[in-house]
Amino acid sequence: MHTKEQIVKDWLTRYTGVPLEAFGHHILLTNFQHYVQLFAEVMKVDIQGLNKPMPSATAQDITIINFGIGSPNAALIMDLLTAIQPAAVLFIGKCGGLKKRNQIGDFILPIGAIRGDGTSDDYFPKEVPAMPSFALQRAISSTIKDQGFNYWTGTVYTTNRRVWEHDEDFKTYLESLRAYAIDMETATLFIVGFHNKIPTGALLLVTDQPMVPEGVKTQSKDEQNSRRFDHQHLQAGIDSLRQLINRGDTIRHLKF
Question: CA-to-CA distance for 208 and 195, rounded, in angstroms?
Answer without folding.
Answer: 31
